[in-house]
Design goal:
This protein is mostly helical and about 160 residues long. Helices cover about 70% and strands about 5% of the residues. The protein is elongated, with a radius of gyration of 23 Å.
Amino acid sequence: MNAPEYTKKEKQIYALKHAAWIFPLFAFGQFYFLPAYKKFSDLAPCQSYFGINGAYFVFTLLYAAPIFTALLLGLIYGKEYVRVFRLAQYPLPNQKTFTPTLYVYGFKARIRICILVFVIVVQILIGIHGLIWSTDYVRSNLDTFNKNCAGNTEAMPVSTL
């Protein structure tokens, strides 16, 4: 038996609703955040913020991204997948789908949850590994950062570190 599907109009409304926040977010990232981050990352190794070298903040933002992605996945799918795990049925009763989807029961329904949990755990582990690596990297290269910034009026670009 197939799960109920969204109508064509419901699909269009869904797409427009998400486009209304995705495109401004993309524009903000492309035209404001990335140029500001590039400017910050060029100057950060020569600055100290709250007693912490600025290069650490540059690496932290990069390597904490998988952790933020894992948290976002958990927030988006968590509530739904807890119900799927309890009922051992996917899609949930009366949950609409975009394409014709057969109901799946038992272990086959729970395997989706196992895959999602595996992806979240791997992303968290990658993020933790990156944060540990970036901390060690910045600590071991503090002399290099200070030497390159001491006599120069221009900051050393991060890409040459």
